[in-house]
Write a structure and sequence with these properties.
- By secondary structure, this protein is mainly beta.
- 5% of the residues lie in helices and 41% in strands.
- The strands form three sheets. A six-stranded antiparallel sheet has the order 1-2-10-7-12-5, with no helix packed on it.
- The longest helix is centred in the first third of the chain and has 6 residues.
- The chain is globular and about 55 Å long.
């Protein structure tokens, strides 16, 4: 196995990235990002921004966030501490899986990341206290182009594993979907 391998997930363009983890008596090592390996797998990724989040309390939901074109972005999400239930929602206009979601459990010890292409909203729920995520983004944050979906929207019907709590005022304000939402055109 190379240092990274991609596993296609049920929504086209969404991948789980498995890192080769090296462990010995000293601890562990894993390469979280390799531009050349991703490009060789057909997923080139130019990193423009790296973000780190820490969420203190189990059950907290963050998201569902995205950026509209021309600032739509690819995201590579890795869990550094604890565990999260990471959710991707397809919001690509005309996609056969428009408004379908897929979730993956990410744990600090599992050597996996989630690779979301442009046109997906992203959010997560912490499954442990003190969960930390590292996000690699292909585009700069553009406040005038940000969007969001309500994590409790019945049209999405996301089956959060725990009761949703600790939503930020920003995430609480995301509107529920109606027929005017056409997604993003990439």
């Amino acid at each position: 196995m190379s240092e990274l391998s991609l596993v296609a997930l049920p929504l086209a363009g969404l991948f789980s990235l498995q890192h080769k983890v090296h462990e010995d008596e000293r601890g562990r090592f894993a390469r979280l990002f390799c531009q050349g390996s991703l490009a060789a797998c057909g997923q080139p990724l130019q990193i423009r921004q790296i973000n780190h989040s820490r969420t203190a309390q189990r059950g907290t939901v963050r998201g569902l966030h995205f950026q509209y074109p021309p600032h739509a972005e690819t995201k590579l999400i890795s869990c550094l501490r604890g565990a999260v239930w990471d959710v991707a929602v397809d919001i690509r206009q005309g996609s056969p899986t428009f408004l379908h979601w897929h979730a993956e459990r990410l744990e600090a010890s599992d050597g996996r990341s989630l690779l979301l292409p442009p046109g997906f909203a992203h959010g997560f729920q912490t499954l442990s206290d003190d969960a930390e995520l590292l996000y690699l983004h292909s585009a700069d944050y553009a406040p005038g182009h940000e969007g969001g979906l309500s994590p409790s929207d019945p049209r999405l019907a996301i089956a959060w594993p725990l009761p949703v709590k600790n939503l930020s005022s920003r995430d609480t304000a995301h509107p529920r979907l109606d027929d005017s939402f056409q997604g993003v055109s990439l």
